[in-house]
């Protein structure tokens, strides 16, 4: 199965970001991708954390969700909508939510980011919990029947979740073959930890990892690390892009997955 990790440098205006996303998704479809994954905050990176309150949507309706459903249908793609802000009962906070759309435009899975980023090195400070409400759902997987008949089990996560291996182990217990990590890593943390954490999650769970990211200097002044990549179950990076908007393409091979798991059946040796 050909997959696309979409890298963006989103700005504060959703309509412009959706237009950019549409062009990148079209590139992915034209290149033969069956699954395209957008980065965290693909629809907007506001000038302030509270800006996301202005374009929040109720689950099941709204222009961002309509865009994802329509684009999936028109391009015949499985589309994972990075994250978008969904309404909560608290008017001052939203959920940071990944939605999965099938090629017929149906929303088939929802995951609300569980772990909220908190970082302060004296120069940069991030505290997602000020505006985002943590998800309370169990780990979420969905099944993706590829064109060749193979059925992939796909586990969902978002950005900071990457630092919590227990979430990915739960996906492995649920027989996930592919782990998705749409992200907006900061330049500081990305430079230090991004690739090594992604490769570790692939290796320890013997699964493919698809990690689309924000990558560049945004209008709000934030610098995201980028380096969107796809890694195989042995931890090898199959494709990547350092910075700037783009489409990172790679083939996921079920025979490669089977072979690695047969040679090193670590998933059957777990005692915890």
From TrEMBL:
One Pfam family here: CN_hydrolase
Residue ranges of the TM segments: none
Gene Ontology molecular-function annotations: acyltransferase activity; hydrolase activity, acting on carbon-nitrogen (but not peptide) bonds, in linear amides
CDD domains from the UniProt entry: nit
Domain of life of the organism encoding this protein: Bacteria
InterPro entries found in the cross-reference section: C-N_Hydrolase, C-N_Hydrolase_sf, Nit1/2_C-N_Hydrolase
Gene3D superfamilies the UniProt entry points to: Carbon-nitrogen hydrolase (3.60.110.10)
Domain CN hydrolase: 1-254
Keywords, comma-separated and alphabetical: Acyltransferase, Hydrolase, Transferase
Full protein name: Acyltransferase
Highest classification ranks of the organism: Bacteria, Pseudomonadati, Pseudomonadota, Betaproteobacteria, Burkholderiales
């Amino acid at each position: 199965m050909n997959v696309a990790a979409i890298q963006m440098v989103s700005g504060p205006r959703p309509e412009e970001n959706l237009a950019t996303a549409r062009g990148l998704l079209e590139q992915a479809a034209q290149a033969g991708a069956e699954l395209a994954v957008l980065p965290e905050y693909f629809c907007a990176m506001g000038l302030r954390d509270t800006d996301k309150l202005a374009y929040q949507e109720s689950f099941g309706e709204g222009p961002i969700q309509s865009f994802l459903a329509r684009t999936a249908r028109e391009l015949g793609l499985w589309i994972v909508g990075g994250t978008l802000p969904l309404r909560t009962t608290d008017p001052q906070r939203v959920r940071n939510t990944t939605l999965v759309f099938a090629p017929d435009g149906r929303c088939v899975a929802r995951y609300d980011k569980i772990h909220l980023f908190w970082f302060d090195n004296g120069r940069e400070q991030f505290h997602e919990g000020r505006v985002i409400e943590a998800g309370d759902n169990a780990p979420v997987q969905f099944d993706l029947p590829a064109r060749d008949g193979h059925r992939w089990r796909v586990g969902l996560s978002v950005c900071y979740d990457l630092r919590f291996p227990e979430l990915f182990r739960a996906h492995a217990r649920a027989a996930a073959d592919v782990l998705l990590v749409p992200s907006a890593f900061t330049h500081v943390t990305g430079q230090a930890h991004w690739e090594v954490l992604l490769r570790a999650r692939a290796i320890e769970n013997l699964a493919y990892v698809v990690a689309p990211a924000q990558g560049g200097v945004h209008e709000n002044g934030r610098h995201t690390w980028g380096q969107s990549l796809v890694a195989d179950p042995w931890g090898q990076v199959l494709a990547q892009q350092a910075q700037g908007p783009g489409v990172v393409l790679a083939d996921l091979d079920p025979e490669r997955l089977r072979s690695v798991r047969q040679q090193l059946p670590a998933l059957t040796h777990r005692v915890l």
